[in-house]
Amino acid sequence: MFSFGRENTGLVAKWWRNVDKQILFLFAFLLLLGLFFSFSSTTSVISEKMNKQTYFFFIKHLIFVSVSLFLIFTISIQEKDKLIKVLTYLFIVSIVLLFLTLIVGVEIKGSRRWMGFDPFLRFQPVELLKPLFIIFVAKIIVLNEKTDIYKRYFYSFVILLIIIIILINQPDLGQTLLLTLTWITMIFVSGFNMLILSILGLVFVITIALLIFFLPEKFGYVFLRIKTFLDPKAGDNFQSQKALEAIKQGGLTGQGMGEGILKDKVPEAHTDYIIAVISEEFGAIFVLFIVIIFLFIGYKVLNKVFAGNDEFLKLALVGLVSLLIIQTFIHIGVNSRLLPTTGMTLPFLSYGGSSLIGSSIIAGVILNFTRKDSTRYFKNE
Asked: How many structural domains compose the chain?
């Protein structure tokens, strides 16, 4: 009834023959793993505190995962050139939405990062923007060959600067750091002068330090988090301390499913501290397994990058993989108190519609750009 052989020229059959099935399986597995952990971490205790049914958050996460899987398929099946054009237009829309958060955004804990009015229908425009930013930067640097290369680098930096200014005013320095590191990785891979790159990195660090010093009413919380990170007794570090204790309690093999207590003590356990919940219940070995999955995805994608000769695809794929891996290690670093608190979700695994949609766009674009038929630039495997 269903034939995906070469004689079948249907769109879905053609997609199935050419998509990288290992990468597809790993993305789907991470989403389903996130659904499982959502069931484990959004307990009835949390639901009762928010006057919701016992499985309210799990059902909502199930809807998010279903939408994400559909989104991955829809993006990965598109014709490459048309997809790039659509994503370019969406990037402009995402910048407008990001800017609107400063005007009509919902303020939570002193930050305007969300759009929407219903507490359970909010979304963060920056999650939509991140993968689109990478595509746009790759397009600027590679596809406009008539313009001087350093002008192209400058144009990409201006785009980054506009986004940084908006994010700093929300404020959201965690996403600012993530996007900046990803941009640095992309221009480094494209062959940018290392000395100039180092100077830009130093300027960025000095700028952040000056903002914290001269605008303490807006950025004082950053200094406090760094101070608390260096000296746990200097401020309120309840969440990060509980997360670290949970990781220690979990040990190598964990306390067992449902036996962890972090999810009942920390309000953001199912989002910003999901890796600590996983470590407490399933152990450090399972956390290592998750890290290996992300690294293997990176390995598979970069293998295709090095085998290809299309500079745009190389740069875009490096950027997308860098975004995933950098965000993953920031999340793990915060949970284990190796980094100051930033409020960073774990791609595919943390609860939250905005995070899942952003991760799904990354996955869909990676699968599209690594398809055998979407480009002539990768060697057949």
From this structure: 1
